[in-house]
Every structure is written in structure tokens, then in C-alpha cells.
């Protein structure tokens, strides 16, 4: 429910819907690369592709919206900004309050070793660890669900030592991706997918077999 999200944030970040409004947090799993992105790119080859992942997600969420012709469906994407340059929604908070993934933050560590350093939090999924992404929100403004019970996210990094290790790796060594394997995972990105996301955005087209013209 939108109210779960609004309850943990300052008013400046609230979503402009009533508390009982139904919302879905959309995640992409490791298989998205082969099952959605590559087919989308090969189908759209002759059109203008600026950001393959964002356009692929947009395409699929628009198709979900089409399945509900009699409903108002609002879509927010993880990359969208408000005119104030604030994100339209805080993806990791949304994932946590919906029960999709646990958002580990500095406040989850009792004996904080970082002093004055800025430490960013990170979501971990009980099945995919850090090998997933939060892509968007689907909101149904006309559907009110006062009866919906809030599920707690699975606290899969439960020891103090592991939480410190997770936040250390994510904040200071995120490039090597070790934080993603902080727990045992059921599925992770393929080598091809790892290479894609490790490549600077401007050079990714080549990896998908896209020409300069498509850019």
C-alpha cells in the first residue's frame, strides 16, 4: 500500500495517493537479460535505441498497462526525476516496505565503524542476493486495499559482521560486485550480462550487436 511507503519518509518524498492505494514494485531478475532485453533489442533493431534497458522495461510495463483497459494505471520508473531533481520514488525504500527485498542501511549496524564517512544502503533479495534491480512502480489509484497486510522483507543478512561486510563492499568496492554474493544465491547474472553492465553505457551498443545508426 502507498501508505506503507509514505509512513517511513519525509513529506517531501511522499507519493500523491491515498494510503490504501494498491502499488506493485517491479524487480528484474538475472534472466531478464536473455528473456526480455535481447529479444527486445533484436525486435527494435531498426528503431532509435538510446538506453536499451530503460526502453525494454518501459515497453514491458506499457504492455502490462494495456492489460487493464478499464483501470487507471500509473507507472513510475526508477530513473525518472522530478523537476526538483529528486527521484520520483525511492526504489530501495519501496522494495523494503513491500517485502520484496531488505534495505540494509547504516542504522542496521549497532557498532558503526565508519565515523564521518557517508555510507549508502543497499537492498538484498533472499533469492538473488544483489543480482537483481528495482525497475519501477505500478500504481492503481482507483483500487483501495485497506485489508492488505504488510509483509516483512526477509532479513537474509542477519549478523552484525555480515552487515558490516555488505556495506563495506557496496560502498568501497562496488565495482567488483562481491557485495552481490553476500548470501548464497539461486541465480546470478551470466558472464555476458556482467560484461554488459561493466561496460560504459556508450560502448554497450556494440555488445548487443547494435550499429552506430541505431544509437
If you had to describe this structure to a student in words, what would you say it looks like?
By secondary structure, this protein is an alpha+beta fold. It has helices spanning 2-7, 32-43, 52-66, 91-97, 160-172, 191-198, 204-207; strands at 21-28, 74-77, 102-104, 122-124, 133-144. It has a three-stranded antiparallel sheet, sandwiched between helices. Strands 3-4 form a two-stranded antiparallel sheet. Its cofactor is FMN; FAD.
Briefly say what this structure is.
By secondary structure, the protein is of the alpha+beta class.
Keywords:
215 residues, alpha+beta, 3-stranded antiparallel sheet, two-stranded antiparallel ribbon, 5 strands, 30% helix
The structural domain count equals 1
- Count of strand segments: 5
Individual helix count = 7
Note the run of SSEs as H and E: HEHHEHEEEHHH
User: Which strand order does the major sheet show?
Assistant: 1-5-2
Nearest-angstrom radius of gyration? Answer: 19 Å
What structural category characterises the helix and strand content? alpha+beta
- Low-confidence stretches are none
Cofactor: FMN; FAD
EC number: 1.16.1.6, 2.5.1.151
Protein name: Cyanocobalamin reductase / alkylcobalamin dealkylase
GO molecular function: cobalamin binding; cyanocobalamin reductase (cyanide-eliminating) (NADP+) activity; demethylase activity; FAD binding
Amino acid at each position: 500500500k502507498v501508505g506503507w511507503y509514505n509512513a517511513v519518509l519525509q513529506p517531501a518524498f511522499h507519493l500523491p495517493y491515498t494510503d490504501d492505494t494498491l502499488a506493485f514494485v517491479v524487480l528484474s531478475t538475472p534472466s531478464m537479460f536473455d528473456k526480455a532485453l535481447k529479444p527486445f533489442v533484436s525486435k527494435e533493431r531498426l528503431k532509435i535505441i538510446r538506453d536499451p534497458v530503460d526502453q525494454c522495461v518501459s515497453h514491458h510495463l506499457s504492455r502490462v498497462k494495456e492489460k487493464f483497459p478499464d483501470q487507471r494505471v500509473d507507472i513510475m520508473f526508477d530513473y525518472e526525476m522530478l523537476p526538483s531533481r529528486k527521484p520520483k520514488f525511492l526504489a530501495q525504500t519501496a522494495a523494503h516496505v513491500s517485502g520484496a527485498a531488505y534495505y540494509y542501511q547504516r542504522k542496521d549496524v549497532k557498532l558503526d565503524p565508519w565515523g564521518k564517512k557517508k555510507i549508502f544502503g543497499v537492498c538484498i533479495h533472499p533469492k538473488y542476493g544483489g543480482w537483481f534491480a528495482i525497475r519501477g512502480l505500478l500504481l492503481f489509484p482507483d483500487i483501495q486495499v485497506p485489508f492488505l497486510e504488510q509483509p516483512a522483507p526477509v532479513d537474509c543478512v542477519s549478523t552484525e559482521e555480515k552487515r558490516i561486510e555488505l556495506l563495506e563492499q557496496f560502498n568501497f568496492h562496488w565495482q567488483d560486485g562481491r557485495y552481490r554474493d553476500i548470501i548464497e544465491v539461486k541465480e546470478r547474472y551470466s558472464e555476458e550480462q556482467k560484461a554488459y553492465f561493466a561496460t560504459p553505457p556508450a560502448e554497450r551498443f556494440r555488445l548487443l550487436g547494435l550499429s552506430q545508426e541505431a544509437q
